[in-house]
Each structure stands twice: as C-alpha cells, then as structure tokens.
Amino acid sequence: MESSAMDDAVVMFPSPAIGHFISMVELGKLILTFQPSLSIHILIVSAPYSAGSTASYIADVAATTPSISFHRLPTITLPSSTNTHYETLIFEVLRLSNPHVHQALLSISKTYKIKAFIMDFFCFFSLSIASQLNIPGYFFFTSGAGCLAASMYFPTLHQTTTKSFKDMNTFLNLPGIPPISSSNFSSAVSDRNNKAYEYFLDMAYCFPKSAGVIVNTFAVLEARALKAISDGLCIPDSTTPPVYCTGPLIVTNNQTDGDTECLNWLESQLSQSVIFLCFGSLGLFSMEQLREIASGLERSGQRFLWVVRNPPSDSQSLDISALPEPDLNSLLPDGFLDRTKEKGLVVKSWAPQVAVLNHKSVGGFVTHCGWNSVLEAVSAGVPMVAWPLYAEQKFNRLMLVEEMKIALPMKEDEKGFVTGLEVEKGVNELMQSDSGKSVRERTIAMKNAAKAALSEGGSSRVAMSRLVESWKH
Fold first, then answer.
1. CA distance 318 to 49
2. pTM
3. Fewest 10 Å CB contacts: which of 41, 135, 144, 393?
C-alpha cells in the first residue's frame, strides 16, 4: 500500500574530486542538524583518475549517519584520448553521467519528495534535469566567494576580449576582488581554445538559472566579494541567485587514523614553533624541487614537519594513488635527515592535517592553497605561506595575501620553480618577521570569526537555517 505522505529528501551530486566530495558530504551532515527528518541521498560518480580513495570515509559516514545513503552511478569509461587536463576529464565524466543522474532522481522520487537537488558546480550539466523534474536545483561551490565572484563574472570577461588569458600579460579588474594578473587564472581557463574553458563558461551561464548557490566560506572572511555578488555586479546581464555562505565546513573527526608518529613528535616541541608543509592530494614535486625545499628548510633553522610524496611518474598518468612510498634517503640531499633530526620530522605521503594544524606546537603552514586546506588553517588559527600548484590555487593565493591578509606569498619563477633561498626566506618571514606577526594576528581574528559564524545566531548558521526553511514551503 502506498503511503499517503512521502518523506522529504535532498539529493546531492558531488564532483568525484576527493576534496569536493568530502565537503559536500559534510554539507549533508550539516543540513541534517537543521532538519533531522530529511533523508540525504548522495550520487557517486567514479573519478576518471585515482587520487586517494573515499571508501573508508563513505563507510564511516554510512555507519554513523543512517539518514545519509549513497547511490553509485554506473562507471563511465572515457575514450582514451590525449587530453589529460584533469578538469576536462571530470567534466566529461559528469556530462556522460547525465542519463544516470536522471534515472536516479526518477527512482528516488518514487519513494521520497525531493525538496532540493544540490550539485557541485562541476555537475552543472544536471541542472537541466532538475528543471525538467521541477526540483529546485542548487550549486555547491567548494571554493571561496572571491572565486565564485570571478566565476560569475567570467561570461562578462569572455565578451570583452577575444584574447586568451595566457596571451594578455595584464591586470584585470573584477568586482569585489583585488586586481588580478591574467597569469593567475587556472590553467584550465587560460586558453580559450581549451575544452575546459568552454565548460567553465557554460557553467557560469548556469548560475542565474539555479535556485541558489551554497558556498563553503563565511561572511567576515570575504565580505567585499560577497557584497559585489549580492549587489549584482558579478552577473550584470542577468539575475544573481541567492548565495548562502555556510562554512567553514571541514572534517573534524577521524583525523588521526592511527597515525600518531607526527602527533607524538609535535608533543615534544615548543608552542607555535613548528612550520608544517603539506600540499594536498595532487600536489607532487620533482626530485629537484624536493631537494630545494630540503636545503631551504635546513638553512632556515626552523623546526618543521614536512609531508613528502614521491615525484610524479614520467607517464604523466593521473593515477597518483598507485605511487609507491617515497624513499626519503634517495629523494632528499645526502645526510639531510640525519642533520635535521633534532629540528624536523619528514613523514611519508600523508599526515592527519586537521589534527596537526590544531596542535599547539604548529605555528605556520606552507600550503598549496587548496580551499579545504585554507579553511582548515583558518579554523585552527594557523597563518600560511601560499605556494599554489594547480586548479584555482593561484587565485586563492591572491585572495589570501592581498585581500584576507592571512598568508605570505612564496616566490616562484615563471615555470613555478621555487629555490631553496626562497623557501628559507618564506618560512623565516612567517615565523620571525613583523609581516609574519601581522598575518598571524589576522589569522587568529579569522579563527574567532569562523567560530562565531558557526555559533547560534552566527552568519553561517543563519544562512543554513534560511536555506532549509525555504524547502518547507
């Protein structure tokens, strides 16, 4: 017998990129704290490359949060092409998954009333399905509001020039953010003839058609960009959708995963004396670069905790989960580990980043500027040295250094290489100089603001509550 009243559900469609996936599931958990009667259904697409597994994370969520269920969509096999641009590969897999998304929504809607369909912005292809099925479609933007402002303004930039960003060699003025060098745009959009450029442009045209955009940030951190968005300056030719800042959303549990070596080592260090270097799931350096980092750290005399991964293989494969454990003795300069054993600890491949950043001994963070890492550092009150490597990270560095003033920039050459001298200068400046002190004070102020945003009556809680309320009507 069919029940007369169906239960309400929210369907979420994350990008398979591990950082995007985890922050969307965390958003799902947050939604449940506001409306526990909802059931959350998460559609899973297999990534076109492997960069660490989400299996144990999914198992943990499934075990601890019964209201969240996972639906694995059929695997898409891409034609073997020469394009290894990872954004393009993700877009392709998501585009080809559209029929499966349609099926999943139809299937879920047989037993639930779907109140909202929340897509990662990479999944914009599925907005049309939500419209067809009369389900409000929202975007979840996993980077900051500054990046959202630039993404919304992208069609306007596209229309004002016929040149690619890589050929401009100029500074551009975008609403709500500091002047940005054309070389600071992600490599995915630096060439207008690139397929990824076309996809990002199509995505930007979808923002006004959505029911709203949920952003993993908080109001005080990016006030100017958020004002430019809400004033309609970023989408001058159309309607700006409502924007909900609900962050910082970060995973706080299960952060040690049995890895106690580095936490034990931190216990024996002085308060705020250690600089932590860690570069995300896709952040790989050549052996030459690793040796420059080592010499810079050694010469700086600073205490350090450094996560080292194997250099990328020559095959240019995106399957980095298959990389073997690094052989530190052969990768790092002769005698380095021995000479620095009183001052530093080098760990292989992985460290419990949130636990490390929240440890009292950690006083600075050299980061690739991935947005999740930025929010983790802000929430822990740890100032940064910004060393962007890929995706929108150069853009994030601009925001961290020029706008938020919670990081100092690492200086690289035009090929992105950083000398040992610059590493030494970067870490010493953060740990010892007046500019480092001011960045530290500002980061601690932002830590307090983040805490306030997530507290009763705080901006992120109010935004979340407004969003969930809107589904009740």
1. 5
2. 0.96
3. 135
